[in-house]
Design brief:
The chain has 467 residues and is α+β, with helices and mostly antiparallel strands. It has 13 helices and 13 strands. A three-stranded antiparallel beta sheet has the order 3-2-7, with no helix packed on it. A two-stranded antiparallel sheet has the order 1-4. Strands 5-6 form a two-stranded antiparallel sheet. β2 and β3 form a beta hairpin. The longest helix has 15 residues.
Length: 467
C-alpha cells in the first residue's frame, strides 16, 4: 500500500491546484500552504537556520535527561585515543580505524564528504565482501580484511589499504536545451598491506546526517510496511520492499531501518556497529577486536577494556542520537516553494519520499511517542538503477537497491557542513545532480524532471531545499 503518495494530489484537486501557467504569468496557480506542513516532527521540531541546526535537543527533556544528552554529545564529539592512555574513559581506538570520533564522519551531526585522494577520510568508507552470505544472511568477509577497509591505524600498526578514486564525466541535456555534467566515481583499492584484494564486492559509503533517528526508532514496523509494494500491484513503477537483517541483541532476523541499505535493525546496533567498524572499538554487541587474521600486530596491540565502550557510554550516545531534533522547514509559503511542492507530487517523488508516519511507544524516550512525522522517506529498499548500483548485496538488498534517504534537513546541509554533496558516496554535488542520478524505479520521475522548464526545475529545487 502506498496511499500516502496521493495525499497532496487529492488536496490539489479539491482546492483547485494546477501547475499550468499562462504566458503572461498573471494567473499562475502556486498551490497552497497547508496548516502545519512546516512542522516535520510536530512540536518536537526546532526553528534553526544556523550552523548548529542539527545538534539541538528536542524540547521537553528533564534536567537529568539533559545531562545524559550532554554526556552523549561529548562522547560523540571527542576523539578516542589508543591504549594504553591516561584517558581511560576514551582509550581503545583501533588498532585500525577510519575515524577517531563519531563527529569526524558526522560533523555537527551532519553529512560526511566524498573521498579526496591523499586526504584522510572525512565521513567516507569502503565496505567490502566476498559473494554469498554468512549464516545470519549478512556479507562474507574478505580474508585478511574483513568487511570494511580501515585506511588508518595507530602508531606502529599497519593500516589495511587505501581507497583511490577517479572521475568520469557524463554530459547530458534537458529538454529545454540546458546542458549538465555529472561526475561518475570509479574506485580502486591500493597499498594493500595483507595481500592483493581482487574480485571483491565494494560499496562506498558517506556518513548521513543523524537528526530524527529516535523518531525512526519509534516507528512501528507497520508504519514502514504500509508502503511496501514489492510486485508493483498499483502499476506506478515503484515497488519498495523491506530489508530484514540480523538483530544482534535479539539473535533473530528483524526489520532493517538504518543505513544506506536498511541493514541495521535498531539505533543501538547502528551506533555500536559504527564504533566497531569505523573506530575499532568493542561494545557488548560487537565484542571481537576488529583485527582479521593475519593482522598480528593489530591482534597483539593493547585494548582499552572489555568492552572498550561500556554499556553506560553506549546508552548515552544512543540517547543523544535519539533526541536530536529535526529543524522545521523554511520559506514554506514562498510561491516558488509551493509550486515546487505541486511538482514534487506530480512527478511522484512522494512515491518513495513519503510522509505522515506515526510513531508508537519509544523504548528510549516517551517524548517520542505518538508523533506524526514527515521524513520524506518510506525507509524501504528501491531499485535505483545500474548507474547507482554498488553490486554488493546486503541481507535482502540487492546491488541496485538503496533505502530511501530522508529529506528532512537537506536544505541546511550547506549551512551545517559547508558542502552539498549527496547520495551514498557523495558523487552528487547538489540536489539537482542527485535527481539526475536517479534511475530504476525513479527513472520515470527523473525523465519528467528533465522535461521541465528551467523555472519549474528551480521551483522543485526550492521546495526540496525548504525541507
Amino acid at each position: 500500500m502506498k496511499t500516502i503518495k496521493y495525499t497532496f494530489l487529492l488536496s490539489a484537486l479539491i482546492i483547485g491546484f494546477s501547475s499550468c501557467s499562462n504566458d503572461d504569468d498573471t494567473t499562475v496557480n502556486t498551490g497552497g500552504y497547508e496548516e502545519g506542513e512546516e512542522l516535520l516532527t510536530g512540536a518536537l521540531g526546532v526553528n534553526s537556520t544556523s550552523g548548529n541546526a542539527f545538534n539541538a535537543e528536542i524540547d521537553g527533556l528533564s534536567f537529568e535527561q539533559l545531562g545524559i544528552f550532554a554526556s552523549g554529545n561529548s562522547l560523540f564529539d571527542q576523539p578516542w585515543v589508543s591504549s594504553p592512555a591516561s584517558t581511560t574513559a576514551r582509550d581503545g581506538l583501533g588498532p585500525t580505524f577510519n575515524a577517531r570520533a563519531c563527529a569526524n564522519c558526522h560533523f555537527k551531526d551532519g553529512r560526511g564528504k566524498p573521498l579526496v585522494n591523499g586526504v584522510n577520510s572525512s565521513g567516507f568508507l569502503m565496505r567490502i565482501s566476498l559473494p554469498g552470505q554468512n549464516i545470519n544472511g549478512g556479507n562474507n568477509p574478505v580474508p585478511g580484511y574483513g568487511n570494511q577497509i580501515q585506511d588508518r591505524a595507530n602508531f606502529g600498526i599497519p593500516y589495511e589499504a587505501k581507497v583511490n578514486v577517479t572521475y568520469q564525466t557524463i554530459s547530458g541535456t534537458y529538454a529545454d536545451g540546458t546542458s549538465y555534467e555529472l561526475q561518475k566515481p570509479i574506485y580502486s583499492l591500493i597499498d594493500e598491506q595483507f595481500g592483493a584484494i581482487s574480485n571483491v564486492q565494494m560499496s562506498p559509503r558517506v556518513g548521513q546526517q543523524t537528526i530524527g533517528l529516535g523518531l525512526v526508532s519509534a516507528l512501528p514496523d507497520s508504519e514502514i510496511l504500509k508502503f511496501t509494494d514489492e510486485f508493483d500491484s498499483d502499476e506506478d513503477g515503484i515497488s519498495g520492499r523491506a530489508n530484514y537483517v540480523w538483530n544482534v541483541e535479539e539473535q533473530a532476523t528483524t526489520l532493517g531501518k538504518y543505513g544506506w541499505k536498511a541493514n541495521a535493525p535498531t539505533l543501538k546496533q547502528q551506533v555500536a556497529g559504527a564504533f566497531h567498524g569505523d573506530m575499532g572499538l568493542t561494545t557488548s554487541l560487537f565484542t571481537e577486536t576488529n583485527c582479521p587474521s593475519p593482522q598480528q600486530d593489530c591482534q597483539d596491540a593493547p585494548n582499552g577494556g572489555d568492552p572498550e565502550v561500556t554499556d553506560i557510554q553506549l546508552d548515552k550516545v544512543v540517547f543523544y542520537q535519539a533526541n536530536l531534533a529535526v529543524p522545521n522547514r523554511r520559506n514554506y509559503k514562498d510561491k516558488s516553494v509551493l509550486r515546487g511542492k505541486v511538482l514534487f507530487n506530480e512527478l511522484n517523488c512522494i512515491g518513495c519520499h513519503a510522509i505522515n508516519q506515526k510513531t508508537g511507544n519509544s523504548s528510549i524516550n516517551s517524548l517520542l511517542d505518538n508523533i506524526t512525522i514527515k521524513p520524506y522517506s518510506d525507509f524501504l529498499l528501491h531499485d535505483m538503477g545500474d548507474d547507482l548500483a554498488d553490486n554488493r548485496p546486503d541481507f535482502l538488498a540487492n546491488g541496485n537497491e538503496w533505502r530511501t534517504q530522508p529529506l528532512w534537513g537537506i536544505g541546511l546541509i550547506s549551512t551545517v557542513n559547508n558542502h552539498t554533496f549527496l547520495l551514498h558516496d557523495g558523487r552528487a554535488r547538489n540536489i539537482e545532480e542527485a535527481i539526475l542520478w536517479h534511475g530504476g524505479e525513479a527513472e520515470n520521475s527523473k525523465q519528467q524532471f528533465k522535461n521541465l522548464s528551467t523555472e519549474e526545475r528551480n521551483n522543485l529545487l526550492d521546495f526540496i531545499n525548504s525541507l
